[in-house]
Each structure stands twice: as structure tokens, then as C-alpha cells.
Specification:
With about 425 residues, the protein is an alpha/beta fold. About 45% of the residues lie in helices and about 20% in strands. Strand 8, helix 8 and strand 9 form a beta-alpha-beta unit. The longest helix is centred in the first third of the chain and has 25 residues. The termini are far apart.
Length: about 425
């Protein structure tokens, strides 16, 4: 008697008798049942046994197909699991912690309001240590976890670049804050950048410098994808505007502590302005050592410098530093004020840009899941096809054809009186 094949199960024949196996569940064979059947003459008994066997096979098939779904986040029970990855140790751990705080705050608020369709959000945080290899290993782990609906992260562009092909292959949606221009050219289908690009920020700040009459720039940059992208953008933009590049010098993120030699070269280069293509920890060190060398060049950067920790670490040495930025904690916009108040209540601290970015990323992802469910491909399609801007703490957001965030504007910010304020030309 031939046996039927069920979804998720394989039916084979052995010694002329039927045997069912299931690779996903390790079900026992039904050879014993078959032996009982051949001894039985009663038709009713045969029907009962066959009915039981059919039910077992159908249940096994249903379970197997659910666990092998390649494009859906199978949120278990009453939860929706979201992966999260950024540095929680190392020289930029403070930004990573702010990102996690922002995402957690958004998730807590959503859960307190009833969750998404009655399901609670569960964040699954991982520390990439600002290491691309570590980031790739985490991406592999995430891609193998069928319970994850989407991922938030990373902070470092080099880490996002390491994860990108793995996320795309797994068709796992990811909203990230990497700023390298490379993402624009790669067109990763499942990655969405919520931050501003280095190309945009670099051009914006260079035009700002040039407009202030600071037209001979020295560039200090961290030697990675992020720093190199900024260096190239500023160099090209300054040349296009008709200015000069006095020189470019690189340093190693988290490793370079003494900038005396580099700054001595900058000092003798004839530059009338310094651009730092890096992050706040190194920025504070550079400004402090500039002060020790008696250097008074105006200093510019992008949102990598824009953190309260720059001021905490650099003190008076960072007074006057100018940057581009999306988010200002004392903005009177109701969405900003509400977020800042909630963040201060939760963490007894003032949020920075990256806390606000991940707060927005979590809320945007929740909006997508509320609209289309947890299927990976549907979330990707929703984010790709957004026409109505998402209104967040960092402003209004839609995505262009490269999945870069489209934003209406950016702020000019400066450290004045030991705090970040909107820049006003004197």
C-alpha cells in the first residue's frame, strides 16, 4: 500500500513496507504500527490506525514548515524579538550604551502601551566591540535565529559593512546608523540607514568652513571606512570650492593616544582650519593636546564629535568646536522634549544623537511591524515604499532608492559655555 507524502516529512519504503521519517523532528518509524495492521482483519481498526497516522504526519509537517520559514520572523509566544548590535565595550562604548538606552526606552514605552498586537518587544543585545570580525560573527548568529524579526545597529561603518552581505543573504531587515558613503553605492536591499551620510555631512561642513573664510584645511582622520570617507569628501569638496588642503594625517581608533607629532605637522602646514574625521573620544584628546601646543585653529567635525562626552572629556579645550548635527536636547519641538524628558527619567542623563537615532529606529520598526506584521520581506517592502515621513525625535524620515534617510535639514552646532548650542555667526 503506497503511503502519501506530507509537507515537512519524507516517506520512504523499506522491505515492501511503509516507513515515515522526519528530519526536523526525529519522529520514530511506524514500522511497529504496520506490523500490528497486517495482523488485524477488522476494517474499523485499520481505519482508526490510518486516521491516527495521518494526524501525526500532518502535525509534524505543520511544525516543520513553521520552523523552516526563511523570510519570516517567527516571534514566539507573546513576544517580538529584535536583535540589537553596537559597541558596549571599547573607546566608543558610551555611544553604544546610548543607542541601547534609546532602543530600550522606545521598546518599554511600546510595551507599556500594550505592545504590538498584544505582543511584547524583546531586545536581544550584542556587543560588537567596534570590531568588524565580531560584527560579522554576530550577524551570522542573528541570521541563524529564525525568531528574530529585525535588527537595530551598528555604530561603526566598518562593522555595518561586515554585516551587510550576511543580513542581505538572510533577508533580515536592519536599520543602522553607519555613515559611510559606501552604503549608497552598494544598495543593500535589507539595510536602511537612519543617520546622515558622511558624504552629506562632509560636504555640508566643508561649505560651512569655506563660507567662514577658512579655506586651507588640515584633516586628521581615523584610519577606517568612516574616517577615510570623511577625509575624501572634505578634500574633494574643499578643492571644488576653490580652497586648499594643507595635508591629511591618519590615526588609529582607540589606539592612538599621543597626537603631538601629528599636530606639530598640522601646525607647520599653513592650515587655517582643522577638520577631525573621527569620534568624540579622540576629538577630546586632539583638542586637549592642541591647547598644550598653543594651537588656536578653529576645529570642525561631523556628528561623530557631537556628544556630551566630548565636553566632559575635553573641558575648556573643546570650547568653540563646530559640528553638524540632527538632534539638540534643548529643542522645543514637542517630540524632542517628550523624548528628552523620558530619557532623563529613565537614565538620569541627557540623551545624545545616537540615543535619539536608536529611539527613532525602534519606533519606526514598530510602525512597520504594526502595519505589515513580522514577515521579513513585508517589513523590507514597507520601509522601501514609505511615502509619508516618519516623525521622530531626530526629525522627519523617509528613505531614498539607496535606503539612505532623507531629511529636510541639519543643524550647525557649537560648544559654547560648556554646552552644545545652535551656531550663530558673529
Amino acid at each position: 500500500m503506497p503511503m502519501p507524502t506530507f509537507a515537512g516529512s519524507t516517506v520512504v519504503m523499506f522491505s515492501g513496507k511503509p516507513k515515515m521519517s522526519n528530519n526536523s523532528h526525529g519522529l520514530t518509524t511506524i514500522e511497529g504500527a504496520y506490523k500490528i495492521m497486517v495482523r488485524m482483519k477488522n476494517k474499523t481498526a485499520w481505519c482508526i490506525i490510518l486516521t491516527v497516522l495521518l494526524c501525526v504526519a500532518l502535525v509534524a509537517g505543520g511544525c516543520s514548515s513553521g520552523s523552516q520559514s526563511g523570510s519570516s520572523g517567527s516571534s514566539s509566544g507573546g513576544t517580538i524579538r529584535i536583535g540589537w548590535v553596537a559597541p558596549l565595550t571599547g573607546s566608543v562604548a558610551a555611544d553604544g550604551q546610548q543607542m541601547l538606552n534609546g532602543a530600550k526606552l522606545a521598546a518599554q514605552q511600546i510595551n507599556a502601551a500594550g505592545g504590538i498586537g498584544g505582543k511584547q518587544i524583546v531586545l536581544v543585545p550584542q556587543d560588537d566591540k567596534s570590531d568588524p570580525k565580531e560584527a560579522a560573527d554576530i550577524a551570522t548568529k542573528f541570521s541563524a535565529d529564525s525568531s528574530l524579526v529585525a535588527v537595530l545597529g551598528n555604530y561603526n561603518s566598518s562593522c555595518v559593512l561586515a554585516e551587510a552581505p550576511i543580513m542581505d543573504q538572510a533577508q533580515l531587515p536592519m536599520i543602522h546608523v553607519g555613515t559611510s558613503p559606501v552604503f549608497t553605492t552598494q544598495d543593500n536591499p535589507y539595510l536602511f540607514r537612519i543617520s546622515m551620510t558622511d558624504a552629506f555631512q562632509g560636504s555640508f561642513v566643508t561649505q560651512w568652513m569655506y563660507g567662514e573664510g577658512q579655506n586651507n584645511v588640515a584633516i586628521l582622520y581615523e584610519n577606517d571606512d568612516y574616517g577615510n570617507g570623511l577625509k575624501d569628501t572634505v578634500k574633494n569638496e574643499m578643492t571644488t570650492l576653490g580652497g586648499k588642503v594643507a595635508g591629511t594625517w591618519s590615526y588609529e581608533l582607540g589606539a592612538t593616544k599621543d597626537y603631538t607629532s601629528l599636530l606639530t605637522s598640522v601646525k607647520s602646514s599653513g592650515a587655517n582650519v582643522l577638520f577631525i574625521g573621527g569620534l568624540y573620544t579622540e576629538g577630546a584628546l586632539i583638542c586637549g593636546q592642541m591647547q598644550q601646543l598653543g594651537m588656536s585653529l578653529p576645529v570642525y567635525g561631523t556628528d561623530g564629535l557631537y556628544e556630551t562626552d566630548l565636553i566632559k572629556l575635553g573641558g575648556a579645550a573643546v570650547e568653540g568646536v563646530r559640528v553638524s548635527g540632527l538632534f539638540l536636547p534643548n529643542d522645543t519641538n514637542p517630540k524632542v522634549a517628550s523624548f528628552v524628558s523620558a530619557y532623563k527619567t529613565a537614565y538620569n542623563d541627557t540623551p545624545g544623537t545616537y540615543a535619539a537615532l536608536d529611539y527613532d529606529a525602534m519606533n519606526l520598526l514598530a510602525q512597520a511591524i504594526t502595519s505589515v506584521g513580522t514577515d521579513h520581506s513585508k517589513i523590507q517592502a514597507y520601509l522601501t515604499g514609505m511615502t509619508t515621513p516618519f516623525a521622530g525625535a531626530t526629525g522627519n524620515i523617509t528613505f531614498d532608492q539607496h535606503h539612505d534617510a532623507q531629511r529636510p535639514g541639519v543643524n550647525k552646532l557649537v560648544v559654547k559655555g560648556g554646552q552644545w548650542v545652535l551656531y550663530q555667526k558673529q
